[in-house]
Task: structure prediction
Amino acid sequence: MTKKVSFEKIVNDLKEAFRFGSNSFIGVDIGLSSIKIAQIDKRKNGNYKLIHYVSIDVPEGALIEDEIHNQDQILEVLKDAINEIGVENSDCCIGLSGPSTFARRLQLAGGTDEELRDQVMWEAEQYIPFNIDDSILAHHIFGRNEGGGMDVLVVAAKNEIVENFKDIVEKVNLKVKVIDLDSLAMINVFEVISHQKLKKDCSYIIMDIGAQNTNFVIYKNSRIIFVKEMEIGGLMITEEIQRQMGVNYSEAEDLKTNIDENGNLPEEVLEIIDEVLDNFFAEVKKTIDFYLTSSSDESLTSCYITGGGALVPGLIEGLEALLAMDVNVINIFDKIDYDKKNIDEVDLEEIAYRGVVAFGLAMRDLSI
Ligand SMILES: Nc1ncnc2c1ncn2[C@@H]1O[C@H](COP(=O)(O)OP(=O)(O)OP(=O)(O)O)[C@@H](O)[C@H]1O
Ligand SMILES: [Mg+2]
Result:
C-alpha cells in the first residue's frame, strides 16, 4: 500500500518539533564524493546563521547512485562528521537524489482536497519510473495556474531508499524529522539568496553540479516549473583522468583539484577536462531543448550554479557560451551569516560551492 500517511506523520512530528523545538536544525547531505552536514540557526528576524559545517570525503564506491554499497564506510564517515561538530541527538533533515526519487510539476484540474489527491495519484502513476505502491508520495500546491487549474509539485521516493538512509543516519544518533530531495533543498537556498533580485515572468536555470549527477531546475514567478536529474557530474572527469593517465580514483581527484603555485592544472589534465566538458554541455543542451520544446518558454533569463562541479576550470565560460546568458555561482554567504568561532574563513569558498544542499536541508521550513 502507498504510504500516504507517512508524509502526514512526518508533518505532524515536525509541527511538534517546531512547537517545543529549538530554532536550529541539521541538514545531512550524503553525496558520492563527500558527506556534508550543516547546522543552521533561524533567527527571530528571519535571518539564517551557519553554526557548524563539516564535509568528509566518502571512499570510492561506498555510495553509487542512491544505493549505499558499503554501510560500514558510510557509517564511519557519518560518525567522524558528527564527532567533529558534536551535534549528536539533534533533529535533522536528510536529502535524497537518484533513480529512486522523482519530482515533477503537474498541472491538475483541482477541486476538493480529496479530488486533488486522486488526481495526484492518477497522474503521478503515469510518470513515476518505479512502483508507487512501494513509495512515499507527497505533493505541494503552488496555487492556480493561468488556465484555472492547479499547479502542483509532486515528489516521490522508494520506501526502500528512504528507510536505508534514515536507518544509517539514526545509527549516529540523529533524529530524522524530514526527508527531502536534493533538488528542492537547493531551491530553498536559491530563494533566500536571490530574494528580490528575480524579475517577474522571467525563468531561471538553477543547477547543482555534483560528482555523479546534476540537479537541474527551472524556476519562474516563485515556482519550480521543471525538474530534471541528469546523470552527469565531476566524476566523469575523474574517471577519464583515471583511464587516460592510468591512475587510481584518489590520484585522479588530486590531479583534477590540486593547482600549482600559479593557479594552473597540468596541461594533460586540462585537455581531458575540455573533452569531458563537451559531453557535459551536450547533455545540458539536450535537457534545455527538451524543456523548450515542451513548454515554448521564451523567458529564460540567467543561470545559477553550485556544487563541486562548478569549480571545474572552463565550466562557467563554456556554459555562458552555450546558453548565451549570464551564469552566476550561488554564494550562500551573500545572505547567510556564519559563526566565526566554528567556521574557518579559509573554508568559506569550499563550503559555498559544495554545501548548498546541506544548507537547504538545514533551512527546511518545518511548518510545511
Ligand atoms: N577545485 C575543484 N576543481 C574541480 N572539480 C572539483 C573541485 N572541487 C571539487 N570538485 C569536484 O566536484 C565533485 C564533488 O562535488 P559535490 O561535493 O558537490 O558532489 P557530491 O555531492 O559528493 O556528489 P553527488 O551530489 O553527485 O552525489 C567531485 O567530482 C570533485 O572532483
Ligand atoms: Mg551533491
User: Anything to note?
Assistant: Residues 31-34, 210-213, 233-235, 238, 253, 256-257, 307-309, 311-312, 354 surround adenosine-5'-triphosphate (ligand 1) (CB under 6 Å). The chain has two domains: 1-99+157-192+336-368, 196-334. Confidence is low (pLDDT under 50) at residues 1-5, 11-22.
